[in-house]
């Protein structure tokens, strides 16, 4: 089963082994090599003029820090996060630079629960898509990719709404449009 606590435990182990904060580790080992200069777990690292306001029930809400860090609430631009997605789609490589070993990506994308399609963090779904959902008060995101089809899809919103996720109207529309690029 997917577990936010399990992901947070993995991040804690990274901090203990590397003797650095998880956010700093990600910046050094993932965000900088992937040219993700507008990505961080911390608002203080970002230009707040470039961070979208969040909404609940049609009303703007203040930025907040969620207790599930580091299993959630990564802040990133679409362009930055596309670099992360491309690296996964290309077996751990981005613009000729290796970020993860291909065997590591294969291990991450190995199905752990045949009934649900759960891999490590990613879910394997119909149509050979790997996807991951995020969302909390004021934010929603769903990212997925087809490894063989070299096709990725990202949907984000500054309000939490079920239509963005698999089974929802926005997601279904994006899936239909994505078929044009296969």
User: What would the principal axes of the Cα set say about the shape?
Assistant: globular
Oligomer: single chain
The CATH superfamily turns out to be: DD-peptidase/beta-lactamase superfamily
Sequence of strands across the biggest β-sheet: 5-6-7-8
In total, how many beta strands? Answer: 8
The run of helices and strands is HHEEHEEHEEEEH
Major beta-sheet overview: 4 strands, antiparallel
Tally of separate domains: 1
SSE class: alpha+beta
Which fold name fills CATH's third level, the topology? Beta-lactamase
Task: Give the mean pLDDT.
Answer: 91
Approximately what portion of the residues adopt beta-strand conformation?
A: 15-25%
Radius of gyration: 16 Å
Helix content: 25-40%
Separate helix tally: 5
Low-confidence stretches: none
CATH architecture descriptor text: 3-Layer(aba) Sandwich
Distance between the termini: 31 Å
What does this entry show, briefly?
The chain has 182 residues and is α+β, with helices and mostly antiparallel strands. The protein is 30% helix and 20% strand.
Question: What is the topological layout?
Answer:
Blueprint: H1 4-18, H2 22-31, E1 54-56, E2 59-61, H3 78-89, E3 93-94, E4 97-98, H4 102-108, E5 123-125, E6 129-136, E7 139-146, E8 151-157, H5 169-178
Antiparallel strand pairs: 1-2, 3-4, 5-6, 6-7, 7-8
Task: Kindly list the characteristics that best describe this protein.
four-stranded antiparallel β-sheet, 182 residues, alpha+beta
